[in-house]
Amino acid sequence: MNDSMHQPNWEGAVNARQVLGKIYRMGRSEWLTTTGWQQAYADGVRTVIDLRNPDERVRRHTDPSVDEAAKAGISIINSPTEEPGHPEFEALAVPYMNHPRMYPENLAFFPERIAEVFHRIAAAEGKIVLHCSAGRDRTGLIVSMLLELVDREDLLEPHYEAALRGINDWHRISSYKHPHESYIEEQDLLGPLRERLEALGEFVRTLRVDDFLREHGLSDAELGQIKDRLS
After folding, report:
1. pLDDT tens column, 154-200
2. CATH number, domain with residue 193
3. What is the number of other CB atoms lying within 10 angstroms of the CB of residue 55?
4. Peptide bond connecting 95 to the previous residue in cis, omega within 30 degrees of 0
């Protein structure tokens, strides 16, 4: 496994792996157990940035019960990548933003929200966990931009493939039946994976992340802080 894709030992974590340096990615934080939160803290995590919309941040009946004291010392920040109920975006993102071909649309409709995520990363303390619901596409959007920012495009495809396979494997064993997604057998996964990787490559080829972030309010100091967290 690539040394940037270390999978942390946090009990309950789904689709979790290191991006680079002090930044990790994963699926829903509600999957973490009390022990999982304690293990993340012991590993140096002090900031969790939740990219979901507020109405998604709810506990499911299949989620573990967690002692809230286990989260002490970890700042949990909600910084959505999109505006809930936006009619034009929702017409494109059906049933939701679940494919790299939608990444350019997300940036075009909500550049300030994307920039806010990066403000949060720059200001964060300790190690940082980025997550959405699956840990695949909203997380994938931000992770892809981070990797481009530090010229690590070589990690784009491995990260996206691992995220897609990680949540697909979870659907195979999860007791919660997702309303829109289910486990896909390997022979049926290869075509969609190839299509998604092509769309991801096209997205990154058409974007200079440092220019985008400067245009939308990030300072050189903040960009330096973000790059330090990825080093």
Report:
1. 999 999 999 999 999 999 999 999 999 999 999 999 999 999 999 99
2. 3.90.190.10
3. 8
4. yes
